[in-house]
């Protein structure tokens, strides 16, 4: 059964956040809120976490996983960014965007797109997620919590706990979450290619 953590949306309890971070370090797969919608998350190098996310979402090996980062300093360790791309991403973060970029050697091979050697990265604008990332001290390997054959993600923590009780280890609930996943922008080819229109405003990249 999944542990259920009720977290204050503006002043997340430090002890609770610490407990969740400890469970992630021990291999837990969690469902957690972001500034777009709920996501599945695990430790960066967790092979079992990756396989569990693939299984829950029915994903193939071409799926771009996302490294959810606390800040730009952390993000820069895992992707290559030239000056023009840096400025474009900097202006849009933190926010509801995922950026696909060439990965550095710091990214585990199993996370990379098999042909492009790219990975998704984002910096969320969400108090609870930021608190968790600060405690964890490293990016959270993530994927949108969108179940196969469903058009919209679940928005309620209790519903996620009820439906995924035996396939995730913990659920963080800090109130209602949105239904739109992030806007995805692919910078791996040099220019900005809009891959998915979601919660983030795409006009700045058109």
From TrEMBL:
<dbReference type="InterPro" id="IPR017945">
    <property type="entry name" value="DHBP_synth_RibB-like_a/b_dom"/>
</dbReference>
<dbReference type="InterPro" id="IPR052532">
    <property type="entry name" value="SUA5_domain"/>
</dbReference>
<dbReference type="GO" id="GO:0003725">
    <property type="term" value="F:double-stranded RNA binding"/>
</dbReference>
<feature type="domain" description="YrdC-like">
    <location>
        <begin position="14"/>
        <end position="200"/>
    </location>
</feature>
<dbReference type="Pfam" id="PF01300">
    <property type="entry name" value="Sua5_yciO_yrdC"/>
</dbReference>
<dbReference type="InterPro" id="IPR006070">
    <property type="entry name" value="Sua5-like_dom"/>
</dbReference>
<protein>
    <submittedName>
        <fullName>Threonylcarbamoyl-AMP synthase</fullName>
    </submittedName>
</protein>
């Amino acid at each position: 059964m999944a542990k259920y953590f009720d977290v204050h949306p503006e002043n997340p309890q430090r002890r609770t956040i610490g407990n969740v971070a400890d469970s992630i370090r021990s291999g837990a797969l969690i469902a957690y809120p972001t500034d777009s919608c709920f996501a599945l998350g695990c430790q960066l190098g967790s092979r079992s976490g990756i396989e569990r996310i693939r299984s829950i979402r029915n994903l193939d090996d071409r799926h771009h996983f996302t490294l959810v980062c606390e800040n730009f300093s952390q993000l820069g360790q895992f992707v290559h960014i030239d000056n023009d791309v840096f400025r474009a991403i900097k202006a849009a973060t933190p926010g509801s965007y995922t950026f696909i970029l060439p990965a550095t050697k710091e990214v585990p091979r199993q996370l990379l797109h098999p042909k492009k050697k790219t990975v998704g990265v984002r910096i969320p604008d969400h108090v609870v997620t930021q608190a968790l990332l600060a405690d964890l001290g490293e990016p959270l390997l993530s994927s949108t919590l969108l179940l196969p054959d469903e058009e919209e993600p679940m928005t309620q923590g209790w519903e996620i706990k009820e439906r995924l009780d035996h396939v995730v280890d913990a659920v963080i609930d800090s109130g209602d979450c949105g239904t739109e996943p992030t806007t995805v922008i692919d910078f791996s080819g040099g220019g900005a290619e809009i891959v998915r229109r979601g919660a983030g405003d795409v006009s700045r990249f058109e």
